[in-house]
Amino acid sequence: FNNKKKNLPPGPPSLPIIGNFHQLGPLPHQSLWKLSRRYGPVMLIRLGGTPTIVISSPDAAREALKTHDLDSCSRPQMVGTGRLSYDSLDVAFVEYGDYWRELRTLCVLELFSMKRVQSFRYIREEEVGSMIESIAKSAESGTPVNMSEKFMALTANFTCRVAFGKPFQGTELEDEGFMDMVHEGMAMLGSFSASDYFPQLGWIVDRFTGLHSRLEKSFRNLDDLYQKVIEEHRNTNKSNEGKEDIVDVLLKMEKDQTELAGVRLKEDNIKAILMNIFLGGVDTGAVVMDWTMAELARNPRVMRKAREEIRSCVGNKKWVVEEDLSGLKYLKLVLKEVMRLHPPGVLLIPRETIGHFKLSGYDVDPKSCVYVNAWGMGRDPGLWERPEEFVPERFEDSPIDYKGNHFELIPFGAGRRRCPGMSMVMAMIELALANVLHSFDWELPEGMTEGDVNMEEGAGLAVFKKVPLTLLPIKASHKIDA
Ligand code: HEM
């Protein structure tokens, strides 16, 4: 009766019990985009018993994430995210409240501040340097490079050094299977657990399908890893003025008896924050670089133009350094175009509504789940000319950027839950790509043409290239000073 009085958003009919689950398919962002072409930019579906609003237009996204920011800024509490965040002690998946507000402030001011990003500059330069040197070996022997692997190792090394003070490659982190743990953790965060949607009986399904034990195993592996690193930090009396890693900062806060929402910060809070850094930072940065090189390999004109800009700006210097980056205008346009076509978090991180509000004239109830289809908006022919084509010039005289103010391009989200790691990750991505293009010319492996570059997407919390990208590096023909 109540629903009859409400003006609910349109949406596809749903089945009893499962709702619209059967319509999600292996790549839900693509299926939801197709459905929203039919039902409109504010669409209501049901996932099990959860009403879910799917937003697919910049106007509706602005309304939800800016006008009604406070009403839509919580997160749904899920089994996977709850377990891996030590019962919601993290910043990304915890529901809205005092704890989130205080932890978020701490992240913005302390952990991911510009000052902190700058303090990690030497790590970015060293890690990009070692990646370029390892690619140079393949160039010398004429061997194609698996770029997807290279970028993943780069972001993993960078993130481990930033957080733990040591890289992942060549340390026990590599031997203990750190990368597998991160990927499994990402899979668990992105998994659809039956308990989330069918509270009464879902747990039986989760036990039957093995999801429950997989999640427990993933939690235990990650927990052991954090524990070891925390103990190592406690046991070494290092004086690392100016070279503090994130664990150092968090342990200092614990020692200073820092409180979050009236509760003292403890080991579990530290571990939950580390989870956000690893599971938020490793895959996302790597997939952006991977998609960039794939698009450049398919579009030699763009590759040439980006490379020429870098080389004319940097000249004969061996390395592109951070001071050079502000001059690389075209590279920045290339990255906007990559974020348009390949935002890693295709549906952002789901929100949960707190209060009732009207969205484009429709009623949205509290406790509804909200997905924003950033991927769909990036490919909407009503918003972009020839949307499937890779044309960085479209941003040339446009004010649009990806920082959360232009709702047609929001790979980092918008509003109060916008990504706090943006500056940290973009500094790494720009430096790495600029050096990759400066040091080498890139060719497709023998027998391949531009049209053969596979652009299929693989399902995951960060949507990756299904087929890894392999390219042949040729040492740059221009003279580079040693
Ligand atoms: C290209 C790389 C990245 C992309 C595309 C990305 C994207 C996103 C998105 C879409 C959200 C949700 C925003 C919203 O709900 O409006 C988010 C949240 C978040 N991201 Fe990122 N992210 C990236 C890298 C990182 C890195 C490197 C870190 C940490 C070092 C990080 C930490 C976080 C955290 C902690 C949140 C939760 C914020 C909150 O709920 O208050 N992200 N990110």
From TrEMBL:
Key words of the record: Heme, Iron, Metal-binding, Monooxygenase, Oxidoreductase, Signal
Family: Belongs to the cytochrome P450 family.
Co-factor(s): heme
Binding residues annotated for heme, in chain numbering: C419
Organism from which the protein derives: Eucalyptus globulus
PROSITE patterns: CYTOCHROME_P450 (PS00086)
Protein name, as recorded: Cytochrome P450
Record bears the keyword Transport: no
A Pfam family per the record: p450
Record InterPro entries: Cyt_P450, Cyt_P450_CS, Cyt_P450_E_grp-I, Cyt_P450_sf
A GO molecular-function annotation: metal ion binding
Keyword Nucleus (UniProt): no
